[in-house]
Amino acid sequence: MRDVAVLGVGMTKFGKFMDRSLKDLSREACWQAIKDAGVNPKHIQTGYVANAIGGVITGQTMVTGEVVLREVGIVGIPVVNCENACSSGSTALREAWMAIAAGFYDTAIVLGVEKEYAQNTQKTVEAIAGAGDVELELSVGVNFPAHWALRAAKRMEVYGTTREQLAKVSVKNHHNGCFNPRAQYHKECSLEQVLSSRMVATPMTQLQCSAIGDGAAAVILCAADKARQYTTKPILIAGVGMATGVYTDERPITFGDMEQRSGQVVYDIAGIGPEDVDFAEVHDCFTIAEFMRVEGLGLFKPGEYDYALDHGESEIGGRLPINPSGGLLAKGHPIAATGVAQICELVWQLRGQAGDRQVEGARVGLAHCSGGGIAGDGAVSVVSILKKGY
Amino acid sequence: MRDVAVLGVGMTKFGKFMDRSLKDLSREACWQAIKDAGVNPKHIQTGYVANAIGGVITGQTMVTGEVVLREVGIVGIPVVNCENACSSGSTALREAWMAIAAGFYDTAIVLGVEKEYAQNTQKTVEAIAGAGDVELELSVGVNFPAHWALRAAKRMEVYGTTREQLAKVSVKNHHNGCFNPRAQYHKECSLEQVLSSRMVATPMTQLQCSAIGDGAAAVILCAADKARQYTTKPILIAGVGMATGVYTDERPITFGDMEQRSGQVVYDIAGIGPEDVDFAEVHDCFTIAEFMRVEGLGLFKPGEYDYALDHGESEIGGRLPINPSGGLLAKGHPIAATGVAQICELVWQLRGQAGDRQVEGARVGLAHCSGGGIAGDGAVSVVSILKKGY
């Protein structure tokens, strides 16, 4: 297996863009990444494109990758459209990384793009519900807020986690988002504001739930041995790991076992353990989710994230910053764009280009996305580790 | 790169099954493949699942692979949902082949599943239209029958191809389908019946257009060096090639240049040329398409398929049988299932298990699917070559 480098990254601002199409968002993210990489788009050998609900929202049910890459002048090459709910972008990255690592290609573009805002928001609600088992879950009303509210209630019972500690994730991530020009929300939220926002599913208030959004993110990958012609300071993909749910009743719902299993895959591939990680972007679709992710991944011990939040350990400047980009809660969460946007953030941080949200001295970053939910378990988890190269 | 073997294949009957779900169809195809392979499903290390329009038709917008494989007891392992319009199943096969060839996994299940029949057929029509560029094509009315009708008219002008010659593809494929117990249609169609069926888009009559259908197909792949424990007569994947459209006006619309480019990729990988192919399953979504595919792939010379049809060269028993399974026209075309079903047919033929439609002495088979259409060109083409192993 060859090492794979990230040559360039690009990302639109995330937000509500009623007048922007999948093509339009993709074009901006791809061109940013192409310019950042300094690569001639004609030299890109393959494309992996992630989109989750474009079929329902825009009517573009199929070949989204071919349609949007054509707008950038990328034609003729193999293109694979990947989907794995909120892990769609991460899955596309993994497939491209595997293809280059194995020597099938030297260069690839990975794009995640999503339109969630629609004239008819009922469409969006229904489309998102399709990340569960539509025959099983929808018939009994276990939607995503309900699922996470149940896990939060259980954690409060088992570990004594407080509503305030849950809310602190939102305060932290909204604070970080204020320093990210591409974030959907630039607004400090006080603990009181988070707790007093509308109750969605007890104890999850509105400011503890990620919102819908539109956006795109793209990265250019290159075999590391070919990357030297473009850069002397590449960022390397140390590995990508994936696992899916096991859906057993024995699984404790206060622990992210799928995160643990996917994390173990990438730690083994990378030869890098959780103790080596300098910062992480994890899938904070709800505040409670951040607890499950960081503890499942071994970045914090089970039950200890409460203490960490109380003591600022996961803030920028803390022992192990979590979601310096603002995370899903503040940066936004256009489904398939999220996993690729996390890679953009890792690259900016590792290059020292993250401006006022820079994690000082960062050499190893971790990105994590979980997607979907089946039978009370997550459907899929993808974890990537990036590091400074050469 | 390691050789990859197909250990087992499974396929539902294709047809109109209003009471069968994605789960139900998947379960049948997967269990057939698992039993055929003699593999414990717990030993399958990864899954690649193709579905194209389930989001619109069934509401299962995301994580279809995880949802349906759980029904077979396959959980925990990496699962990637792939889409590439009519090449979705072929794309899933390619990704799995790459992952095993590269050594990431030893075993994989590849599944293609589709539900096209819906209570509201307007939904199906809209979903299928999403295989084009929805902003560009749909606004000007170039749907798929119109696209292929234009190409047929041009071929008639350039090569003097007759309406009768076009129709002969349908006569041949419907005849072949009569010997395939899993085909959607078991009905001989005379030349007169084909020509006098309802006109859809001149010169394409209804019996020259593939119909919608429901169905699933699955295959189990295994690293060839590990396959010996399961079988002494494996079928090997000699290679898979993919290309996407280039969408230029210079492209002659009477020639399948995308098929040519994807074919060249696989011929180079496999070290097998079109002259070595004993039979082929190609994407006969319309009768005219079969001409474009076989000539683009170099199986017949440009313009010569008219003569070949007149002289029975592509019939079972002819020089180079095309679509012995009945093809899309008779076997049916549940979008994402088609590419995997072609692999099933290749395996049955190469094993000598194809019953009354057996191609005698077949040692090398080729499968081709093209998907989608953008700016008057196909969006993507995937070609696989399988051969008898050891």
SSE order and pairing:
The structure is a homodimer of 390-residue chains.
Chain A: E1 4-11, H1 22-37, E2 46-50, H2 54-58, H3 64-70, E3 79-83, H4 88-101, E4 107-114, H5 121-129, H6 137-140, H7 144-159, H8 163-177, H9 191-196, E5 199-201, E6 204-205, E7 215-223, H10 224-227, E8 235-244, H11 257-270, E9 279-281, H12 287-296, H13 305-310, H14 327-331, H15 335-351, E10 364-374, E11 377-388
Parallel strand pairs in A: 2-3, 2-4, 9-10
Antiparallel strand pairs in A: 1-7, 1-8, 4-7, 5-6, 8-11, 10-11
Helix pairs in contact in A: 1-3, 4-15, 8-12, 11-12
Summary?
Two copies of one chain form a homodimer. With 390 residues, chain A is of the alpha/beta class.
Give a structural overview.
The structure is a homodimer. The first copy, chain A, has helices spanning about 20-35, 55-60, 65-70, 90-100, 120-130, 135-140, 145-160, 165-175, 190-195, 225, 255-270, 285-295, 305-310, 325-330, 335-350, and strands spanning about 5-10, 45-50, 80-85, 105-115, 200, 205, 215-225, 235-245, 280, 365-375, 375-390. The longest helix of chain A has 17 residues, at about 335-350. In chain A, a hairpin with a 2-residue loop joins strand 10 and strand 11. A 9-stranded mixed β-sheet of chain A has the order 3-2-4-7-1-8-11-10-9, sandwiched between helices. In chain A, strands 5-6 form a two-stranded antiparallel ribbon. The first copy, chain A, is globular, with a radius of gyration of 19 Å. With about 400 residues, chain A is of the alpha/beta class. Chains A and B meet through helix 2, helix 3, strand 3, helix 4 and helix 5 of A and helix 2, helix 3, strand 3, helix 4 and helix 5 of B. Strand 3 (about 80-85) of chain A pairs antiparallel with strand 3 of chain B.
